Amino acid sequence: MSHHHGALSVEGLHVAYGEAQVLFDVHLTVPPGGLVACVGRNGAGKTTLLRTIAGFLRPRAGQVRYGDVDLVGRKPYELARMGIRYVQQDKRVFADLTVRENLRLASSATGDWDWDAVFRYFPRLKALLDRKGGYLSGGERQMLMIGRALLGRPKVLLVDEPTEGLAPAVVEQLGGVFQELKGQATILLVEQNLPLVGRVADKVYAVKEGRVVAEITDREAIRSAAVEAYL
Amino acid sequence: MNGRLRWWAGVLVPFALLAAGRWVLPLPFVVEVLIFSVYTMACNFLLGRVGFISFGQPAYLAAGAYGTAFYLYYFGRDPLVGILVGLASGAVFSALVGLVFVRLRSDYFALVNLALAVIVYHLMQKVLAPITKGDNGLWFLDRMSSTPLLDLARPDGFVWFAWLVAVGVWALYKYLDDTVFGACCLATKTNEDKVKFLGYHDFKVRWTAFVLANTTAALAGSLYGVYFGFVSPEMASAARAADPVVVTILGGTGTLYGPLVGAVAFVGMKDLVSGVVGNWEFFVGLLLVVIMLAGERGIWGTLEPWLRRRLVWRRPAPALQE
Amino acid sequence: MDANLWVSGVVYGLSMGSIFFLLAAGLSLCFGLMRIISLDQLLYYSLGAYVAYQVNVATGLTWPAMVCGALAAGALSWVVERWVFDRIYAREITFTMITSFGILVAGVGAIKYVWGLVPRPMGIPVEAQVALLGVNVPVYRIIVIGVALAVYGLIQWVLNRTIVGTAIRAAVEDVDQVEGLGVDVYRLFTGTFVGAGMLSGLAGALHGPLVMVDPQMGLEVVPFVFMVVIIGGLGSLKGTLVSAFLVGQVVSLGSLIYAPLAQMAPFAAMLLILLWKPTGLYGSALLRR
Lengths: 231, 322, 289
Ligand SMILES: Nc1ncnc2c1ncn2[C@@H]1O[C@H](COP(=O)(O)OP(=O)(O)O)[C@@H](O)[C@H]1O
Ligand SMILES: [Mg+2]
Description:
Bound molecules: adenosine-5'-diphosphate, magnesium ion
Structural class of chain C: mainly alpha
Distance between the termini of chain B: 29 Å
Shape of chain B: globular
Structural class of chain B: mainly alpha
Helix content of chain B: over 70%
Largest interface: B-C, 44 and 46 residues
Number of domains of chain B: 2
Helix content of chain C: over 70%
Radius of gyration of chain B: 19 Å
Strand order of the largest sheet of chain B: 1-2
Shape of chain C: globular
Strand content of chain B: under 5%
Order of helices and strands of chain C: HHHHEEHHHHHHH
Strand content of chain C: under 5%
Largest sheet of chain C: 2 strands, antiparallel
Number of strands of chain B: 2
Oligomer: heterotrimer
């Protein structure tokens, strides 16, 4: 896995869908190799934030930087090639493609074929290589999505609610994976599962109605899920 | 009371202008604009209100025109009855076709309609050639009898009749915009589920709108038939399928004055351009692409806000926000 | 009826179906991937025929002329993609459809301007006949069928066996996701569009010797191509092949039974199929509206 080069920082971000503004003056920083969580109710604007960082939405105003590289205005595929990888919500893998094809596609653009690393994290995928995405369970799909992102040698991982609707055992496993990934990539994790957040995050931002309402850096507060008070 | 007055003023002012044009502009131009605006109102309603894009309008135009032509060529002489027959045949035709078409997704709808236009063309040109006289068309100008008050058989009478029809059709669509039916149409355009939620049957709303609009197109066809005293398969030609869509967009899709403004601009340009170069289609197509790329608001869509600011144009427009 | 007539009728229908398939395949692929209905494919079809005709007249060559037709069509479609479609992919389907119709109408106008209204006869590459079940059928028609089947095989191979094909299949499901994996989907779009344009051009060039090359030829095949696409289901390649041959047979065999009805019969078939399945035989109801 690659070495981290910089922090991911978002400054004064305003994002709107047409007339409806969704994010207001969002500031946040993910230190190099750190894992920062972003929590908030449904509809708070977390997905919008990640989609904007990943280049799928253009902000009205504000900046997104990785190290000292400006990310705003670049196409999503350019960002992905730079190593800014976005793991979407809803576990959307290609239903009609096999796991193998899913992974091959993920490593095509970056020319990186280091599949063993992926299988180290998710041994389960190895047995499923010829199964179609549409026939995977929720947990398997999530593994595949993260695995796909890892194949792109990510410098930054943007992960959107990975544990939503998954069995506790799988959540446990994913928690372990995130812990291992820490230090290897700069990770911004959107998550509603506060115990998991407490386990892996160095810092937590609470988002409410499109604004960052709290930044919590105290380990103890994070572990004890004190964030809940802000939601 | 005041509101009603304003309502009618909104209908009559533009048409009064056009009527005044009768003494300034060449007669064929005025007639063409009037008929074309009727034709376009149908398309404008479908596209702007119901969200149906139809490249098959020539099919319905031809349905009306041939209804009128068959009557005037084979059976009777009265052009008024001829127009009624055309109207009826258009209504029946679109009612039947609509049963299938209205269920389709918008992309399939557009394809099927264009296919229909070509089929109608083929039908009129070849299959029914024994009664349509194929490409030679049906000539019945001499067969039409004079009508009292306005003599439809003569152009200077016909122009006023066309004027009345255009005003009537236009008032109808303006009226529909304010009704529950109009609101339902708009709702089907934005969100089909919403309509069901409101308790109106989606299929019925779409079907009614479809039949109404295509009967209007058929009426335009009948008017053409009576005006020229001649109908040929050329009317259903797919090459002209773009015309009503172009005029709708040129004028400004979904706007009330759009069809009228578009028809004036289109017919005017056609007369001018075809005088200089014979190849008119090239410019229609190019124009369409340019308008689309330029933001698809059309002439009236661009002009209206400007006029409103300048003239403090009557009351604010009815809210048509989606 | 005479068995000879039936054999040649079937061959005739298959060759017609092949032309329809080449045209409809591009239309269908563009819909599946970019969610556009590219009516301008019919322009590339006409252009392919005219360029093939022109090169044929100038050089006397036939097959190379057809290749030129396909390439010219591909070149024009590339220009249109860069200048027009690239700006409007994000718009809803009616928008792109209207725009592409504008391109078609303008292009047909331009063709009339360059080549005039008079239909042009084009030389046929192979005049020979071959005996099939004791009936002489033109070799050229059999070659046309072979070309269509080869193209089908080629597209299937690309889709299922290459990484580009994998990306296309994935993008048909979800473009954003593919882009998120670092794939330049815009290049994928351009490639697919130009590929579709070339297929349309090839269809026109191959069809040239079987009909007259005239400015309306694009509009004349419109109903059939649409029927093929609709019956097969937008976005389905297999459906397109099946329905192309189906429509070809209905036209061809229908005309043996009662000529004037030949063109109406597939239309009636289409309406029936739509009543039964509103998105065609193989079309997916899941596709975004
Ligand atoms: N494509 C869209 N168009 C318009 N509004 C949207 C769109 N996507 C999300 N929204 C709105 O933006 C707000 C934030 O949504 P989202 O970012 O998905 O929230 P979260 O991920 O925190 O649940 C919501 O109110 C949602 O309705
Ligand atoms: Mg979300």
